[in-house]
Amino acid sequence: MQRVAIAVEVAAYDIDLIEASKFFGTKFSFASSVTADEIVIQGDVKSELFDIIVEKWPQIGEDIIDDLGEQK
């Protein structure tokens, strides 16, 4: 089973989705893509993703990031 992480509502914080997707792809060495208002990052990156988002984009506070668990 391939794992992916999905970052949603990122554009609401004035973040360029294409630039963010490129950043994640480079940071994690996995493919990432933009669809509508979300960024899909391939690979098991969840454990690092929350810290990296807050570090790179401080306007997104830790308190508004949620882990929605396993989805099908």
UniProtKB/TrEMBL annotation:
GO terms for biological process: formation of translation preinitiation complex; translation reinitiation. Residues 3-57 form the SUI1 domain. GO terms for molecular function: mRNA binding; translation initiation factor activity. This is Density-regulated protein homolog.
